Automatic annotation (TrEMBL):
<dbReference type="Pfam" id="PF00497">
    <property type="entry name" value="SBP_bac_3"/>
</dbReference>
<protein>
    <submittedName>
        <fullName>Substrate-binding periplasmic protein</fullName>
    </submittedName>
</protein>
<dbReference type="InterPro" id="IPR001638">
    <property type="entry name" value="Solute-binding_3/MltF_N"/>
</dbReference>
<feature type="domain" description="Solute-binding protein family 3/N-terminal">
    <location>
        <begin position="33"/>
        <end position="248"/>
    </location>
</feature>
Length: 252
């Protein structure tokens, strides 16, 4: 015959078994991002916003996950955590050949070109990437713009880096650098928010269109990643996804 103590213990163990799956769900992941408008950014109110943030919130809703904290960090620091800390999600992350085998992926958020930008007033011209050797070139540290340039120039290019896009654009505006390697749509949007005219920027060269995704660190639960991917695919396949791209001016 089961004692009263045994009944209480049985109820407690049952409660643990019911609670554990929730604790092991998407709530257990750490969500990291950066200022990368219109993909992900903080509003003046301090709340996160952007295409990727909206997709993430819809994924949480589909998976019955309570809204989680999104931490905004400088890209290089967030990227380092993605490499070292299991259970980390970083977005929006370009899925390049160099990065592909390093992480697990849930795609897509959207696709957008990575380009070399210059001031139109400088009247610079490129026939090939070897000509970059004569220019002062900058990228954001650990960003896809830096990685693609190193890949496509076999690392011979001397490249300055900074931790912040706006600082890089200010350097470009002041004439302290000649060329900036970055996501074209993001750079142009920040440029205009700085009070500058879009036409003042010239696209010198395209490094290729990149797919931006949610990247998961090594060691993250494959079951959680599969759950996340399924919810993302449901969103991307929905009627609302093209409208979402349109609203953030990311639809081709």
């Amino acid at each position: 015959m089961m004692t009263r103590r045994g009944v209480v213990l049985g109820v407690w163990l049952l409660g643990i078994s019911l609670i554990s799956p929730a604790r092991a769900g998407l709530e257990s992941l750490q969500y990291l991002s950066e200022e990368y408008k219109p993909f992900n950014y903080t509003q003046p109110s301090g709340h996160p916003a952007g295409l990727a943030v909206e997709l993430l919130e819809r994924i949480w809703k589909r998976t019955h996950t309570q809204p989680q904290v999104i931490r905004f960090l400088p890209w290089a620091r967030a990227y380092q955590r993605l490499q070292l800390q299991p259970g980390t999600v970083l977005f929006s992350t370009a899925r390049t050949r160099t990065r592909d085998s390093l992480f697990h992926w849930a795609c897509p958020i959207a696709r957008t070109p990575i380009v070399l930008l210059a001031l139109r007033s400088r009247q610079l011209h490129l026939d090939n990437l070897q000509q970059l050797a004569t220019y002062h070139v900058m990228a954001v540290r650990a960003d896809v713009g830096e990685q693609l340039l190193h890949t496509q120039t076999d690392s011979w290019l001397k490249l300055d880096t900074t931790h912040n896009l706006e600082l890089a654009l200010k350097q470009l505006r002041a004439g302290r650098i000649d060329v900036l390697s970055f996501n074209e749509r993001v750079a142009r949007q920040v440029w205009q928010e700085m009070g500058e005219q879009d036409a003042a920027l010239q696209t010198l060269w395209s490094l290729g269109e990149q797919e931006f995704c949610f990247a998961f660190s090594p060691g993250t639960s494959t079951q959680l990643i599969a759950q996340f991917r399924q919810a993302l695919q449901q969103e991307v396949s929905s009627e609302g996804y093209p409208q979402l791209l349109e609203r953030y001016q990311l639809r081709h």
